[in-house]
Amino acid sequence: MRRLSKCCLVPRGGGLPPEAVAPLARRQPAASLSATPGTHWTYRSGKVIVEAVNRAPQRWSGRDDGPGPEHLRWHHVVGAGGAADVAFLGFRSDEGVRRNKGRQGAADGPRAIREALASMALAAPVAAADAGDVEVTDGAMEAGQERLGRAVTDLLDDGRFVVVFGGGHEIAYGSYLGIAESARVRSGAKLGVLNLDAHFDLRADETPSSGTPFRQMADRERQRGEHLHYAVLGISQPSNTKALFDTADELGVDYLLDDHCGPANLAAVDEFVDRFLTGCDVVYLTIDLDVLPAAVAPGVSAPAAYGVPLETIQYVCERVAASGKLALCDVAELNPGLDIDNRTARTAARLVHRIVTAQRTHQ
């Protein structure tokens, strides 16, 4: 038996083992990642070329119990480009958290999620590609969000299910820009944004931050003559001022308080999710890990004193993934420097694992 005692990421160049290539063969046009010294990585999908990713994808590695599909793990199936059903993209930023006076460190979240996901076992093959990271440097958050949006649009229009690893919750506005400009939404599909979060993030601050993305989305939709179909599950009353509740009401935001999200409230959760899904054609799901109890997710910028049980969050994620409407998902606020025993990273990776496998099963 071969074993790596610790999951790690090593320089790009590998990917799928030979024995797994055949069952994962696809009929899609190939894509590629290329770079020259001193330039951004360029993702090529069909005829679309977007220079947005400025941190190269890395080869995934982890525990290896031997050849064959019965030993399949995520690091076996993630390549750097090529035909794939799902594309992973990182957003290395905590500038929005800094501006929102939170605990910094979320910029290292994408690395930690990849490492936690790499050795998780797969019950069935999945064709996946890692498109690298969009990295915010010198405080240029808005430019980073624009680049993230262009990369997400490119991947979505190439037919990929896209999962973005954050990063602070400023990731949400960049992800939104990407799906809002996708061909499907621009052609008339109704977009729905579901946020699993303890906070509304509807602040009307002049300076954008991790606390403003959904207000920015609502303002942009209004400018286009549209209404943002936005719902939040897990809202903590003590963590949101009355002004924020008033803003949510003014904008027509549907929300469910964390007090009403326990296992005994499953009927209310189902009703909430059904109502959201009925109102849209395509879904962007964003998960702020601070929606979970601090004991489950200690490594976040603002740990939850109460939180929504992981059981409920996973249930909602799987229901949305199984709806056939989910096109884009991101995971925000993982702060590895504040994590305990990699609890938060492992939880984030488990949610990603369950979302992707459920989404592929019901596609």
Automatic annotation (TrEMBL):
<keyword id="KW-0464">Manganese</keyword>
<feature type="binding site">
    <location>
        <position position="201"/>
    </location>
    <ligand>
        <name>Mn(2+) 1</name>
    </ligand>
</feature>
<feature type="binding site">
    <location>
        <position position="288"/>
    </location>
    <ligand>
        <name>Mn(2+) 2</name>
    </ligand>
</feature>
<dbReference type="InterPro" id="IPR023696">
    <property type="entry name" value="Ureohydrolase_dom_sf"/>
</dbReference>
<feature type="binding site">
    <location>
        <position position="197"/>
    </location>
    <ligand>
        <name>Mn(2+) 2</name>
    </ligand>
</feature>
<dbReference type="InterPro" id="IPR005923">
    <property type="entry name" value="HutG"/>
</dbReference>
<dbReference type="GO" id="GO:0050415">
    <property type="term" value="F:formimidoylglutamase activity"/>
</dbReference>
<comment type="pathway">
    <text>Amino-acid degradation; L-histidine degradation into L-glutamate; L-glutamate from N-formimidoyl-L-glutamate (hydrolase route): step 1/1.</text>
</comment>
<dbReference type="InterPro" id="IPR020855">
    <property type="entry name" value="Ureohydrolase_Mn_BS"/>
</dbReference>
<dbReference type="GO" id="GO:0019557">
    <property type="term" value="P:L-histidine catabolic process to glutamate and formate"/>
</dbReference>
<dbReference type="GO" id="GO:0008783">
    <property type="term" value="F:agmatinase activity"/>
</dbReference>
<keyword id="KW-0378">Hydrolase</keyword>
<feature type="binding site">
    <location>
        <position position="288"/>
    </location>
    <ligand>
        <name>Mn(2+) 1</name>
    </ligand>
</feature>
<dbReference type="InterPro" id="IPR006035">
    <property type="entry name" value="Ureohydrolase"/>
</dbReference>
<comment type="function">
    <text>Catalyzes the conversion of N-formimidoyl-L-glutamate to L-glutamate and formamide.</text>
</comment>
<protein>
    <recommendedName>
        <fullName>Formimidoylglutamase</fullName>
        <ecNumber>3.5.3.8</ecNumber>
    </recommendedName>
</protein>
<feature type="binding site">
    <location>
        <position position="199"/>
    </location>
    <ligand>
        <name>Mn(2+) 2</name>
    </ligand>
</feature>
<feature type="binding site">
    <location>
        <position position="197"/>
    </location>
    <ligand>
        <name>Mn(2+) 1</name>
    </ligand>
</feature>
<feature type="binding site">
    <location>
        <position position="290"/>
    </location>
    <ligand>
        <name>Mn(2+) 2</name>
    </ligand>
</feature>
<dbReference type="GO" id="GO:0033389">
    <property type="term" value="P:putrescine biosynthetic process from arginine, via agmatine"/>
</dbReference>
<keyword id="KW-0369">Histidine metabolism</keyword>
<dbReference type="GO" id="GO:0030145">
    <property type="term" value="F:manganese ion binding"/>
</dbReference>
<dbReference type="Pfam" id="PF00491">
    <property type="entry name" value="Arginase"/>
</dbReference>
<keyword id="KW-0479">Metal-binding</keyword>
<dbReference type="GO" id="GO:0019556">
    <property type="term" value="P:L-histidine catabolic process to glutamate and formamide"/>
</dbReference>
<comment type="similarity">
    <text>Belongs to the arginase family.</text>
</comment>
<feature type="binding site">
    <location>
        <position position="169"/>
    </location>
    <ligand>
        <name>Mn(2+) 1</name>
    </ligand>
</feature>
